[in-house]
Amino acid sequence: MAATVTAASPGASGGGGRGISLVRTRTRRTVGEGVVRAILLAAAALSVLTTTLIVLSLLRETISFFGDVSLSDYLFGTKWTPLLSSAQQSFNVWPLLFATFYITAIALVVALPLGILCAIYLAEYAGRRTRKIIKPVLEVLAGVPTIVFGYFALAFFTPEILKPLLGSGVGTNNQLAAGIIVGLLVLPTIASVAEDSMSAVPQSLREGAFGLGANRMQVSLRVILPAALSGVVAAVVLGASRAFGETVVILLAAGNGQLLPKGPVTNPLEPAGNMAAFIAGTAGGDIGQGSIEYKTIFTIGFTLFVVTLILNAVAIRLVNKYRQVYE
Amino acid sequence: MTGEQIAQKAATQRQVFPRPRRGDKVKSAGFYVLMLLALAAAMVALATLLIDVWGDGSSKLSSDLINNQPSKINPESSGLHSALLGTLYLMAICAVFVIPLGVATAVYLEEYADRTKWFNRIIELNIQNLAAVPSVVYGILGLAYIVRDGLSLGSTIVAGGLTLGLLVLPVVIIVSREAIRAVPPSIREGALALGATKWQTIWKQVLPGSIAGIATGVILALSRAIGETAPLLLLGAAVSSRIDPTLDNAVINALPLQIFNWSKDSDTAHFLPLAAAAIIVLMALLLLMNSIAIYLRNRYEQKW
Q1: Any residues with CB less than 8 A from the CB of B40 and at least 6 apart, and which?
Q2: Nearest to A241 among B52, B132, B238 (CB)
Q3: Of residues B182, B152, B5, B128, the one with CA closest to residue A321
Q4: Which residue of B16, B31, B230 is in closest CB contact with A217?
Q5: pTM of the predicted model, to two decimals?
Q6: Rounded to the nearest 10 degrees, what angle do helices A94-120 and A175-199 cross at?
Q7: Residue B244 confidence (pLDDT)
Q8: Which of B233, B276, B224 is nearest to B254 (CA)?
Q9: CATH architecture assignment, domain B67-300
Q10: Distance (Å, whole) CA B159 – CA B149
Q11: Which of A185-189, A281-285, B120-124 is predicted with the least confidence, judged by mean pLDDT?
């Protein structure tokens, strides 16, 4: 059904009296448009396919893993020795999970106060010139490959700093070095993202607080920080999730997490590895497809994936809860 | 309580900002010093990192490093030829794969997608979540569906490039969308009013207008890709290679992998300097790419 309008427009077209159809008929033009749209949609759908494939690849081997190891065995217990011969093999994931959270916690203890203090300084105290220099430097540092930090932890930080300071109890691989260096790794990201959200707080809030007699510190800590809370939380969660999934720094500095027979390693000076380091360190060897070790890699990958998604969902909720909309 | 309420409460309640006391100045000064210390600590630590790497590796920088293959037996003359070549291959394969796909997705989401439709919302949510997945999980995906089942490419450099491509695809999509969004609607309306079809408008007006932003984003995404180690560790490159990778042999090597292998070698006296030298080469490459990105942004950026 074509709604046709006859428009007499002598001024515009000069001729006048010709019918102009408002509905496009099927021409080569419109068919071509449809094809383009379909191609673009297919490209966009690939992202969905990627996620589906990630889940499928992880799930397939994970299900097969739980055919050999019971779920309660996996979740409860304190002995993680998946690569030993079958008599001593044990698959309690808790020590590995613990090390993952432990190293992330050490990293946050370093990065959280330093990052937020840097952000407050840059947003509220620094002059324009200082900020113009430091901000790009932070962004470049946030792009330094993690392998560089891994090298630094192994070749410099542990032997030159930790060992002289803390004595012979420090292992060549230890969780403390890995945690501190991962903290250093995520610091530029936290500082940069938190600074963005503090700078976005409207000037009127600052002026209002100054007008009430607050000094700069009070304005920063009691007005700007709370007002920018959603962005600051986002920055911290971003940093935490990077620390959580970090691989090579842990693998080089803390260990590969293949042998944790005595339960969670609470001494930060001893080696342990996180889930990502276990995956990368174990898959690099020659492990046969279909073996229990191979399935373990995928099961740990699935665990890592699920925990990361949960953290991400919590982050989005937190951000929305403290979201601040200024006009 | 939302942030606004907290801030308002803080700004209006009298006891929050009591009359200035003598201790206030000391506290403020203390806080200021604390901030400066934090900034200094961060900067010093990160500077130490760069200085340490330079100090360890600069003596190894020579034409040997670029021309020779990695060697376990002769660390003195060992180079990183296969690793450097591998990184360049990975970058090229990744670019060929990720640029059309990423830009097409961004165009679809910005210009075509109706946000009220469920499948478009799923695509959006997916891209957000994909960006948060740890890189090592992409390695598992690559191992399962690109190296073995699915595409079964084997442990080739193409498999590596595709895996890294999937990893940085969300980044390319996100920056391309921002660049496309920055083109004002009036440009599109003008083109459509002159009788261009939607695709003609996008191809002739929107994409040329956003090319600087897209190019910058793509370069930054590629520089992230070539710095990644974890996914490559999974694809089956256990030993450093003395053979150059080609498009169809089963050799994956790249600078980060080579750095990793040298760093964990037990003969630290010989191999740590090599690792540091490889880091310098990698960082120089990244610096070059970042400079190109900045140049492109300044040279071709459109002001509307």
Answers
A1: none
A2: B132
A3: B5
A4: B31
A5: 0.87
A6: 40
A7: 84
A8: B233
A9: Orthogonal Bundle (1.10)
A10: 12
A11: A281-285
